[in-house]
Amino acid sequence: DKGSHRHFMEKEIHEQPEVISHTLAHYLDFAGGSWRPLDMPFDFAKLDRLTISACGTAYLAGLIGKYWFERLARLPVDIDIASEFRYRDIPLAKGAAALFVSQSGETADTLASLRYCRNAGISVASVVNVRESTMARESDVVFPTFAGPEIGVASTKAFTCQLAVIASLAARAAVARGTISREEEKALIRQLCDAPRLASQALELQRRIEKVAHELAHVRHVLYLGRDTNYPLAMEGALKLKEVSYIHAEGYAAGELKHGPIALIDETMPVIVIAPHNRVFEKTVSNMQEVAARGGKIILITDGKGAAQASVKAFETIVLPDTPDLIAPIVYALPLQMLAYFTAVFMGTDVDQPRNLAKSVTVE
Ligand code: M6R
């Protein structure tokens, strides 16, 4: 039931504050500001590496996880698209564990990768939304998301719930590995608890986003740029737009601009820059200047400080609330989803069932 919403995708975008909160509550005691016990088949403290594999949007959630595990827990992460992972004859070290990410728990390539790891004798964990799925059954441990049924083919709430789980796991890995102080741990818990509130503030930006979507509905190509965790998020924004609006979109690491994609930029090219005021903000601003110098139409997604300090004229600036680094990808995912959604609505595509796509890809 879509309730008062026009499409499941819209409904699912709006459900995010609630389902993120519901998901986090499985891992965190909000009131006590502490972790809930987890049944673990491996000890984060003893791992040498973590191997992540998934497809599509779930892969991009895993890629954001790589930044978190490496930065917070100093745990090296190998990550691969499942269709590559399964045929690559990867040597898996004994000190490794594998983590799979999947909404459905049935994606053929991800399942095959999971079985490859099982056969290699390493511990297998999965972040899945469907508890009764094959991947859930075949894993040593399941870290569930509680997004509820996701009907729209384009993944929205499943993605942010995956991020919530992976962020929690990375923070716990940091505790287990002794790479953060007690104060830092408390701060991370507080930040996670704040994610649902910030996600709901992001939903209030609808008007502004509709204005940008009106523009995008007339273009053929869009470039998304970001650094650090906003690089995978740029790819997710591009994936969402191409899935539901059929506009050609690419997500790039902003630092790669000069290495090729800058050739595409002219006055007709919208460039969506995801740049909260963080450790790499100044670097991203210089990439924006390169875009601006070539007449590109910049749509900047940032926070208050970023908006004040971005010394570039943007066509539109979407200002999100101040968001701690850890949960920024969760909060910044929402305007990207809304942008794809409204662009598709203005173009009149079949938002919930885009052409050529299936919700669950159970064949190769
Ligand atoms: O069920 P899964 O999470 O394993 O599905 C993976 C991808 O097929 C999925 O994320 C796909 O990319 C979505 N259509 C993205 O919106």
TrEMBL record:
Where it sits in the cell: the answer is: Cytoplasm
GO CC list = cytosol
Q: Where is the active site?
A: K359 (for fru-6p isomerization activity)
Q: Which domain of life is it from?
A: Bacteria
Does the record bear Transmembrane in its keywords?
Answer: no
EC no. given is: 2.6.1.16
Q: Which reaction does it catalyse?
A: D-fructose 6-phosphate + L-glutamine = D-glucosamine 6-phosphate + L-glutamate
Span of domain SIS: 40-179, 212-354
Keywords for this protein = Aminotransferase, Cytoplasm, Glutamine amidotransferase, Repeat, Transferase
Q: Which coarse location class applies to the principal site listed for this UniProt protein?
A: cytoplasm
Any single GO molecular-function term of the entry would be:
carbohydrate derivative binding
Q: Which GO terms describe its biological process?
A: amino sugar biosynthetic process; carbohydrate metabolic process; fructose 6-phosphate metabolic process; protein N-linked glycosylation; UDP-N-acetylglucosamine metabolic process
Q: What does this protein do?
A: Catalyzes the first step in hexosamine metabolism, converting fructose-6P into glucosamine-6P using glutamine as a nitrogen source.
**Subunit composition?**
Homodimer.
What is this protein's record name? Glutamine--fructose-6-phosphate aminotransferase [isomerizing]
Q: Which part of the full protein does this chain span, and how long is the full protein? A: 244 to 607 of 607
